[in-house]
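Posting for a labmate who doesn't have an account.
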Amino acid sequence: MRVVAIGAHPDDVELTCGGLVAKLGSMGHDVRLSDLTSGELGSSGNEKTRALESAKAASILGVSSRECCGLPDGGLDHSNVQQVKTVVELIRRHRPSLVLGPYRHSRHPDHVEASEMIRRGVFLAGLRRFDASGRPHGLVSILYYMGDVHFVPSFIVDVGKFFKKKMKAVRVYRSQFERNRPDSYPTRLNRAGFMDLIEARAKYLGGLIGAEYGEGFLYEGSLRVDDPTLLVGGR
């Protein structure tokens, strides 16, 4: 299966679903990352530094490719036809079966806008009369990952074997998570204990399914299950 994980900024995917990304890649799936913006408005670091960090993080997670769509940081807008068109063309270019995207509720407006842009883009990518480059590509499922707002997940993925790799990829973003650098500015991301919060959530979600670490996802719709004993037999 081809999977595209989309974040509003570099490091979004690593923080939220880096464990699943690494796990899917290890299972032989073709996993690709797309950052809608380069994170140029970030209070710490700069665009060039974040690009280098994102490339290194992608290598750690073992994905097949990573790209930046070049949309404006702080200016994502789901009502902007050209921005939505960018997502449509992304979907048509990569032709995934599954897209990972941010949950619609977040303190960061870019995450809110990105969520709706992805929902619209996935739908419009399948319409042959929508004016965008690439052949129409439909039948794409979306899984929403958990950002700074908790939700009751449709399911939780055991990422215990991949949590160290996820955190290694996260820590590559030194410009964002280290406060003692010359180009750093105090933010919630580089305050003491932030990494502990990431681990605490993963432990909590993992504990709900009897695993060491977990990541939760929301699917809007009904999931087909042919054999329900496979869901509960291992608990």
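Reply:
Got it, the structure tokens are right above this. The mean pLDDT is 96.
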